[in-house]
Amino acid sequence: MVLAGTVTHNEERGPARPPGDPQVLVVGAGPAGCSAARAAAEAGVRVLVVERKAVVGEPVRCGEYVPAPLLREVGRGGAFVVQPVKGMRTILPSGEVHTLRAPGFIIRRRRFDQVLAAGARDAGAHILLSTRAVMGEEGSVRLLGASGEEWTVKPRVLIGADGPHSSVGRRLGIRNRNLLAAVQVRVPLVRPMDHTEVHFLPEIFGGYGWLFPRGGQANVGLGMAPGHGGPHALRPLLGSLLGRLAGEGKIRNTPRSLTAGWIPVRPLERTVRGWTLLAGDAAGQTHSITGAGVAQAVECGRMAGKWAARAVLEDRASALAGYESGWRDLFGETLERAWEKRKHLEARWDRLEEVIRSCWVGFREYYA
Ligand SMILES: Cc1cc2nc3c(=O)[nH]c(=O)nc-3n(C[C@H](O)[C@H](O)[C@H](O)COP(=O)(O)OP(=O)(O)OC[C@H]3O[C@@H](n4cnc5c(N)ncnc54)[C@H](O)[C@@H]3O)c2cc1C
């Protein structure tokens, strides 16, 4: 088991476990978990983060686009920025192109997650890599190291920041079945681009294809609505999207390493139960229409950590209600609207060209 004294490398072998039981246990060292850990540690409680992967941020399962305001929030000199983007081009099946000004950045997601993890560590949180959390009885959690080590902790507050298939959520009897499958490859770009591209095609049911420029390369991927197959079913569609983009002279169709993942498209109705709370993808805080979730994971993670620390310090589980209302105040309306739009869009997919304007964030009508 690796105690992540420096979380960017896993060669540092620390003691098998940090001193003392954690007051707050965070499962998952993604953007939500690291942000939660940092906020809780800054508030003065003992925080342990467990991450089943050996290296924070790997493998990358992300188009790596984040909106500009997030960068100001995270700060740290933007060590993870690959390039700025000015806006987004939406391309409809008819070939019509609609351009929206939407300043943002393409980031090195691996580096981004590691910067967040370093922030948590600097604030005093312990991060254990190669360590899987398994839910036990009566609030206990078993921690299993990759080399067979095992121990049990009983934190006061448990934060599930463990992604779309959250095992912490399952312990609460919550399973988010509204997951969208997504696949992506990295390809060479023919010439630099300063806009992202979003391609709506009838065959990509309830989703879209994307081309996100990344310096001399691009992330090209697609996501499709729940119930239309897992990532395997998407491969042929990705193949034809790549062929199309190559035909348009935008990319060279020599993809490297395919990544696949799942994106929750519906926020959970409850994200707090007893002394446990969920944040980020585990809480379904991604945007139902765009699939973007990094910004919400950072913000909601931060709130989760703040309220978890308060619950510990006041010895009062009811304090966690502040998290539920806090994140819904900030994102609830946006995410609910997106979910309603998704249902509308899927129900009228056969009239895509007609309904897309009221269902895609690239059009003013979406906000009407
Ligand atoms: C193909 C794809 C493209 C995307 N593109 C974008 C994009 O361009 N922009 C954007 O904003 N969003 C994008 N998203 C969504 C974004 O990646 C997520 O919303 C974001 O990662 C959520 O962060 P998180 O911390 O909640 O979860 P994650 O980043 O998934 O982190 C959860 C962590 O928990 C760990 N974990 C899980 N179970 C356990 C366990 N039992 N014990 C220990 N550790 C555990 C996992 O290993 C993982 O590291 C994309 C998603 C996909 C799949």
Elements, N to C (H/E): EEHEEHEEHEEEEEHEEEEHEEEHHH
- In the CATH hierarchy, the third-tier topology of the largest domain is known as FAD/NAD(P)-binding domain
Mean pLDDT: 91
| Annotation, overall tally of beta strands | 18
Domain module tally: 2
Overall spatial form: globular
Query: Based on the structure given, which CATH architecture of the largest domain is correct?
Result: 3-Layer(bba) Sandwich
- Helix content percent band: 25-40%
Quaternary state reads: single chain
What composes the largest sheet?
8 strands, mixed
Task: Describe the overall structure.
This protein has 368 residues and is an alpha/beta fold. The chain folds into two domains: 2-58 and 110-176 and 267-343, FAD/NAD(P)-binding domain, CATH 3.50.50.60; 81-107 and 177-264 and 351-367, 2-Layer Sandwich (D-Amino Acid Oxidase, Chain A, domain 2), CATH 3.30.9. It is 30% helix and 27% strand. The protein has helices at 31-42, 68-74, 109-122, 167-171, 231-247, 294-314, 321-347, 352-359, and strands at 2-3, 24-27, 47-50, 65-67, 81-91, 97-107, 126-129, 131-135, 141-145, 150-153, 157-160, 179-188, 195-199, 208-214, 217-224, 256-264, 272-273, 276-278. The strands form three sheets. An eight-stranded mixed beta sheet has the order 4-6-5-13-14-15-12-16. It has a seven-stranded mixed beta sheet with strand order 1-7-3-2-11-18-17. Strands 8-9-10 form a three-stranded antiparallel beta sheet. β5 and β6 form a beta hairpin. The longest helix has 27 residues, at 321-347. The protein is globular, with a radius of gyration of 20 Å. The relative contact order is 0.17. The model is unreliable at 1-15 (pLDDT under 50). The protein binds flavin-adenine dinucleotide. Flavin-adenine dinucleotide binds next to α1, β4, β8, β12 and β16.
